[in-house]
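From the pipeline queue, job 12 of 40. The input is one protein chain; the requested action is below.

Action: predict structure.
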Amino acid sequence: METHRLVLPEDLNQFGYLFGGRLLAWIDEASWIAASLDFPEARFVTVAINEVVFRHSVKKGTILAIESRLKKEGATSATYSVTVRRGRAKKGEVLFTTQVTFVNIDEEGIKETLR
């Protein structure tokens, strides 16, 4: 799944660059949507975001492409590979990559099988 975000003034840190926490929230949301579309009956919560390394700074007005792809499916979890690029997902400069893992839980918050 691919989605896009526009970096607005309220997304910037005190130095005028994209706040890292804002990007992490967008990545979490985009990959959660991808997981929810792939597993519509699941009740996913984020359990891990792997390595967090920001490769380039991002300024106001930049369009970001966030691509989330299923990498691994476990009995109760799903892991998504996430790539953030400047502009178009397949052609833009890579700004950030990570993996996000979700676990499926029941109404009591206990792990539950996906299928």
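Job complete. DSSP finds one helix and five strands in the chain.
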